[in-house]
Structures are given as C-alpha cells and as structure tokens.
Amino acid sequence: MSKAALYLIGVVVLACYAIPYTLLTNVAEWYGSFLFWCAAGVAVIVLNILATASFEEDEA
C-alpha cells in the first residue's frame, strides 16, 4: 500500500496545480480553490499516514 499511496500523493500534487487553473477558473469566489486545496491537504495527510504505516523503528 505504501507505493500506491506515494503515487497517489503525486497525483494529488499534480491535481493541486491543474484543477484550480482549469476546472475552477470560472469560480470567482475565493472558496472555490480554497476548499479544493483543503481537501487535497487532508488527502495528502491521510496518504502519508498510509505510506508510513509499515515503517518500523530499528532497535540499535
């Protein structure tokens, strides 16, 4: 799951650039892109948790 989560993080980052400048260009209110970026931020946090869930601490 960690590799898939990392790829999905890349997709979310690319969407953060593409969506506001393509699909949300006609939304004149500030909350159009802001809501999208908030949702993308939460998605990246969840994907980071999934990507690092299998990490183990080394006993040295």
Characterize the structure shown.
Helix content is 72%, strand content 0%. It is mainly α. α1 runs antiparallel to α2 (31-52). The two termini are 27 Å apart. The mean pLDDT is 86.
Low-confidence stretches: none
Overall outline = elongated
Cα radius of gyration in angstroms: 15 Å
The secondary-structure class comes to: mainly alpha
Which sequence of SSEs, written as H and E, runs from N to C?
HH
**Straight-line distance between termini:** 27 Å
- The count of β-strands is 0
> What proportion of the residues form beta strands (DSSP E)?
under 5%
Helix content: over 70%
Q: What is the averaged pLDDT score? A: 86
Given the structure, what is the number of helices? 2
Main pleated sheet:
none
